[in-house]
Amino acid sequence: MTYDLIIIGGGINGAAIAREAALSGLKVLLAEKDDLASHTSSASTKLIHGGLRYLEYYEFRLVREALQERERLMRLAPHLIHPMQFVLPHINAPRPWLLVRLGLWIYDRLGGKSSLPRSRALRPTDTMLRMPLKGEPGGFAYSDGWVDDSRFVVLNAMDAARHGADIRTRCGVTAAKRVKGVWAVTLANGETVSARALVNAAGPWVADMAKQCGIDAKAGVRLVKGSHIIVEQLFAGEQAYMLQQPDGRIVFAIPYLEGLTLIGTTDVPVTSPDKAKISRKEIDYLCEAANRYFKRSIAPADVVATYSGIRPLYDDGASDAKAVTRDYVLELDTNGPPVLSVYGGKITTARHLATRAMAKLAPALGISTAPDNRIEPYSGGNLPLPFPEFLQRVREFWPFLGEQRSRRMASAYGTLLSNIMEGVTCESDMGFQFGGGLTQKEVDWLINREWARTPADILERRTKLGLMTGPETETALAHYMEGLLP
Ligand SMILES: Cc1cc2nc3c(=O)[nH]c(=O)nc-3n(C[C@H](O)[C@H](O)[C@H](O)COP(=O)(O)OP(=O)(O)OC[C@H]3O[C@@H](n4cnc5c(N)ncnc54)[C@H](O)[C@@H]3O)c2cc1C
Known about the structure:
Blueprint (H helix, E strand, L loop, with lengths): L1 E7 L3 H12 L4 E4 L15 E2 L11 H17 L4 E10 L6 H14 L9 E3 L4 H4 L7 E10 L1 H14 L3 E3 L4 E7 L2 E6 L4 E9 L5 H7 L8 E12 L7 E5 L5 E7 L3 E5 L3 E2 L10 H12 L11 E12 L14 E5 L5 E5 L6 H16 L21 H11 L4 H12 L3 H4 L12 E3 L2 E2 H10 L5 H8 L8 H14 L2
Parallel strand pairs: 1-2, 1-10, 2-7, 4-12, 10-18
Antiparallel strand pairs: 3-6, 4-6, 5-6, 8-9, 9-10, 11-14, 11-15, 11-16, 12-13, 13-14, 17-18, 19-20
Helix pairs in contact: 1-5, 1-8, 9-10
The structure holds flavin-adenine dinucleotide.
């Protein structure tokens, strides 16, 4: 069989393109060398945002597009993407008050009509400022969205599979060449598959892949590492903080899972796309960034976990890593069967990127694109009620799930929760307990429906329970999965 499209890479960009192509009726194969979202797309700050600070670089089109996407995604995946309030303290701030106010005024309006509250100035007496922060800062509050990034990738892949796409994980592309009018693609298992068109969505490996496939690439990729630290809860409440730093950078402090705070990010140019790791210098920088603002001081010893990812940015020649465009670039090579390479992008704009990618490929594939993914909810996103009321229903229906687990599972699975919970009337129906509320029922679903193959796929990406459980959970899970998987 010849596929219409083979996609290299199961990060957010590859998965979103697979979804879009499958929804358009194409025969699609997505090949991912590791797990879905195992690289940059699980290492983001997890914001569905316009990117307030990109206004400083006059990236108005990017910000407008991202704000419009924010609104659309909150509608299409209301279980997974949640509104979040951001507090922007104004103390020792490098940007003048009026400039910040103006920026927020533009941010509120640039994307058109929004369901989120508009920004507002805060008095120093506001508890969100007074309680956790040093000094007596004034400040602002504005709104954006928050997403579990790796789950969002999985939802894209599930939607693509539901529309017939063949999703292969741990199945890298080792070679691709044009043979007799099609792409002949060799997979890591030795199989050769063919397609009328190819998408190179290999993220940090996009340039390596282009070279390997003999693609006529005009662009360069600039690899910029970004790291986060996780510490015990630094402040009360559900709001996040946007902290301006003296070097002009922005560091976010975000409530994370149960009882934790996520702090990031850094911008460090790197040369290799391989597994990124936080440095001691970055940990110090992020601790200092938080200590500049919060009353509760943190030190490297307080860091309970870290993660790092590499932004595969389009090389636009900017000298400063934080100023390199966050916009995406799609390069189409039609010297034979077409290949489209994806540079840059954001979790927020991946759906839009996918529609643009299909529009670029459509003439070569001889199809007309009339994408309807604008209104197609993501897997589990067809909630009959606003999320808080849906969650309430989940709690009433399966009271034994408890407060935390019902919130986690309602958000992760949305309406698909009823499929997972089919035939379950009490805790013992959930099967073996792995720890942290993870049960055999959920694990079976993740293996059978979400391509989970290792404990890390489950503990780090499909759920974030690895942060809440110990090595005994991992061992039990490894043992169980070994027994099930070939
Ligand atoms: C620190 C940081 C913070 C960020 N914060 C945000 C944010 O808050 N909001 C937002 O919208 N965006 C954010 N981003 C941007 C966003 O995370 C990235 O733009 C996005 O994840 C890139 O996705 P990708 O699919 O291009 O790359 P990846 O997720 O890296 O996916 C590429 C995939 O290709 C696979 N691959 C490579 N070679 C092969 C091969 N030969 N065969 C098969 N598979 C292959 C890799 O294994 C990988 O899984 C952030 C990025 C970083 C680094």
